[in-house]
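Q: Start with the shorter request: fold the first protein.
A: Done. Sequence, then structure:
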Amino acid sequence: MLLQAAEDVSAQLAAVKSMLCGSGDAEPQSEVTAQLAQEIYNHNLLEQLITDLAKIDFEVRLGSSFCTAMFVLM
């Protein structure tokens, strides 16, 4: 159960990173990025992610650290 949750978090954070940075040759869309940021702020997910960072896999932490930095810079 815990392993499945970690895999789900990893997949979701990869999707968030893709929305923020684009993927391959696709550029990020500013409308999608703005909507994503607004939803994350509305649901206080950034604080939750930082609080639970120690509970997730190292590779996932790297991706979430990147996402956190992107939101701080917005």
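Q: Next, the second protein, separately.
A: Sequence, then structure:
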Amino acid sequence: MGRQIAATSEAATPVKVLPAARPTLPQRRYLLRGFEQPGGKLPLFDEEGQRISPQTIRSCIRTGWAEPWFTNPIKPDWLVCKLTQAGRQVLRAKIIIR
């Protein structure tokens, strides 16, 4: 049983993807926060004011769903990122499991 993903674009042809190509719940929550932001700016803090886990941010960068935007000179250890086109696509994707 393989997993397939069908994008909701005009050319919505299902393609096989690896299980890792699907965001975890923390990754999805993080990416969704940038979906409606100008330029796709992703947050440093969650809805409760807690810092987003650097592990979550780095994993989104590794998968290509987020990319570093700029370096914060005051807090160089903070990862200021923005949502990529691949990140937008994975959020819009409809997962089909067969």
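Q: Describe the second briefly.
A: The first helix runs from residue 25 to 35. Residues 25 and 31 are 10 Å apart (CA to CA).
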